[in-house]
Amino acid sequence: MGDQNRNNIRVVCRFRPQNKRENAEGGVHIITFDEGSDDTVRMEGKEYQGNFTFDAIFPTTTTQKQVFEHSIKPIVDDVIGGYNGTVFAYGQTGSGKTFTMMGADIDNEELKGLIPRIVEQIFHDILESPSTMEYTVKVSYMEIYMEKIRDLLNPQNDNLPIHEEKNRGVYVKGLLEVYVSSVQEVYEVMKRGGNARVVAYTNMNAESSRSHSIFVITVSQKNLADGSVKSGRLSLVDLAGSEKVGKTGASGQTLEEAKKINKSLSALGMVINALTDGKSTHIPYRDSKLTRILQESLGGNSRTTLIINCSPSSFNEAETLSTLRFGMRAKSIKNKARVNAELSPAELKALLKKAKSEAVSFQQYISALEGEIGIWRSGGTVPKENWVSADKAGAGAVTPSTPTTPAAPNPAVEAAKKEFESRPSTPAPILEKDEREEFLKRENELTDQIAEKESLLAKQEKLLAEMKEELGYFKEQEETITKENKEMASELSELKLQLEKVTYDNKEGAITIDSLREANAELSSELEQLKKTLVELKISQKEGDKEQKKQEKMAQMMAELDPSGVISAKEKQIREALNKLDSIDGSGSATLTMEELATLRRELADSKSLVTQHEQTISELHYENEHLTRKRDELEVRLTTLELEYEELLDKTIADEEANSKIDITETIQELRAKLEGQYSAKKEVQQKEIEELKQELEKKNEELHKLNSALAELKRANEELQNAITEKETRIEGRKDTAEKEKDMERIRKTMAQQLADFDVMKKALMRDLQNRCEKVVELEISLDETREQYNNVLRNSNNKAQQKKMAFLERNLEQLTNVQKQLVEQNSSLKKEVAIAERKLLARNERIQALEALLQDAQEKLTTQNQKFEAQLQAVRERLEQARSQKSASLLGSFANNPNNRIAKPLRGQGHPSLEGVDNVGGSPTGNSFAAAIQVVLLLPSDVMRSGYGNTLSTPGRTERRTSWLPGFR
Ligand SMILES: Nc1ncnc2c1ncn2[C@@H]1O[C@H](COP(=O)(O)OP(=O)(O)OP(=O)(O)O)[C@@H](O)[C@H]1O
């Protein structure tokens, strides 16, 4: 294979056998392998039918060893030879990338993959190398997951920045490089790193990796004979599945993940496209972490092999086709691999010598030039043939045309230039060298900052996720509590409602009782009112009757006393007679005739008879008065008897009623009795008073009667006197004698008569007044007597007759009704009271229940709070434990890798083969050609980066000889 060919990316294709799922899905082989050709494969798919030619084809039956021998082994040789090498494994998930790279079991001779075999080969080559060669092997293991670089040997560093420096090129800053001195040590590192890999489940493959893993082995070698140094770096890359997201069934976070993984893969595709299309000036290495790290491997200083892993099944036709096309594109990428060598001291010495002589020549040339300038400046001239040139100045290496350029190219500068040229150019405008360095520095700083910010962001995101989880838990708790709370609240509100209902019913009951009481009182008062009205009506009726009767009686009595105004007429006649007499007396002539006298006598006789009549009337009146008094007394007696009888009857009735009815009726009867008694006693008092008054009046009347009698007697006497006078007059007329005497007598008589008449007038008036009064009294008495009689009758009726019985029945009915109403009211009252009592009891019970519920609620809340606190404490403890575990893990990892200074100490290995140069200082002093174990000596060197990291501080002092005598246990 020519060098030109070797600079092309080697693409080999491996097919795995159909897996269970493909068989189950009815997948058939769509790939056919040509027996005669080991580099062409034919695809007979639905979508595509055609051949693909690669550097090598590995059918499904190819063993791990065959793959290694036919595709990878040359790369190992290259790395040992000081070249950079890269092995990519590309393909869809489950296509056999990991199987190819790492193998199913690294301890199994058959199944172990390329990486273990490479490691073994490297160590084998080292051991096979001449003893003048001293090697140091260091490994690093990282993964790119979600566009973040994680150190698998120090997983705490999960977002390492990529730096680029002029001398080192592109590298991952802070990535742990572990020095290893045996295959077992490498295995140990691989196993530890593998454990830290992120594996996410997809339905394509349960162990499918969603990350790109890069295992780097750096082999540095020093030729002890000439001091030359070479280093080769082998990157072994297991890419993430190249399938489309949909097919893996990835979703949710995995979708996000897939997008980022695809970002790296699509960037890889873009880089390959740009490298192979022949027209792109810009290669987008910076588009992803993967392409940036593998910048050297793609079109740069590296010998690269791409293993494309495919499924032969029709089930994965699309993915297989895509993978094959990817391989085809990558095939044409051209690299510029070169040996990473440093000059030996002899070479450097020669270079120095040359440089020094050049410096001297230049110095001479400068002084000659300065001399010539001095002449020119002083106004002189220098002929052209004398002008100073580099040749003349003695600087043989310096040509006159390019005085500043060294004649021979500086090897160191050339080497640096070569390195720059060989490195794929990072897209940037054409810059000055210093500027470029400055920019790279600035870029590195910025990358660091980005990485820092990203890890901070990741931490925050993690914290956020934790918080979200916690929040979710608390929300759940809150939901449960809220639900419980709601239930309790609804229960509470229900209870409250019931309580309110009970209270309301209670109130309603009380209101009903009050209204019934009021109705009762109203009915009672109505009854009272009716009774009163009845009594009043009766009284008013009686009073009306009484007044009428009184008027009638008075009229009758007065008519009886003065029938047809006889007295007045007689009085008139007498007055006329007297006036006549007066006129006779006044004229002095006896005009009174006999006829007139006879008339007078007749009138007088009439008067007499009238007086007699009056006397008779008075006596009758007297008699009647006495009769009335007697009657009244009788009535009084009867009234007393009646009262007694009534009382008896009342007692009897009450006793009967008491026997039949309840206390309430008795009360009503008692009330009635009290009322009646009150009425009777009041009436009795009034009547007694009246009787007293009547007695007094009677006495007065008697007195008046007496006076009347005496007045009557006087009238009689006057009458007699008048008769005497008349008789005298008759005798005078007859004798016509003694006229003067007669006149005198007449005068006297007239005067006496006038006097008597006036007296009579007064008396009559008084008598009439008295009579009227008496009549009134009599009438009143009679009315009162009637009333009493009526009352008596009433009482009699009340006690005996039907009306009384009816009334009693009515009253009883009323009473019964009232009793019923009262009973009902009492019943209602009692039932209401009962209900109220029940409601109160219920209320109390509910209050207790509410209190209990409240207590329960409080209890629950307290419990919740304590649970919450407990949970928080637990969470804290878990967090602490997690932190502890993490720190322990990292400590253990670091203990074995990062913290173990031995891992950071270069453990140079010496070749067992014959020294290539005679007289090389065998520093280790170990005999060549001895046993395999004895041939490998561990030489403790302190590389510059270990010194930088500080680990070398304690180890830099021990003597070299002592350290050289340490033996690698793995090789004993
Ligand atoms: N050539 C082969 N011969 C036999 N079995 C194989 C071969 N290649 C792969 N397998 C099996 O197929 C399965 C998937 O392989 P592997 O895990 O290597 O796939 P992968 O491409 O690395 O997947 P991922 O992208 O998820 O890492 C494994 O069980 C492996 O043992």
Explain this structure.
Belongs to the TRAFAC class myosin-kinesin ATPase superfamily. Kinesin family. It is found in: Cytoplasm, Cytoskeleton. This is Kinesin-like protein. Keywords: ATP-binding, Coiled coil, Cytoplasm, Cytoskeleton, Microtubule, Motor protein, Nucleotide-binding. It comes from Ambispora leptoticha. The chain has 972 residues and is an alpha+beta fold. The protein is 64% helix and 10% strand. It is built from 23 helices and 18 strands. Strands 1, 5, 6, 7, 8, 11, 12, 13, 14, 15 and 16 form an 11-stranded mixed β-sheet that branches. It has a 3-stranded antiparallel β-sheet with strand order 2-3-4, covered by helices on one side. A hairpin with a 3-residue loop joins strand 9 and strand 10. Helix 14 packs antiparallel against helix 19 and helix 15 packs antiparallel against helix 18. The longest helix has 129 residues. The two termini are 38 Å apart. Bound molecules: adenosine-5'-triphosphate.
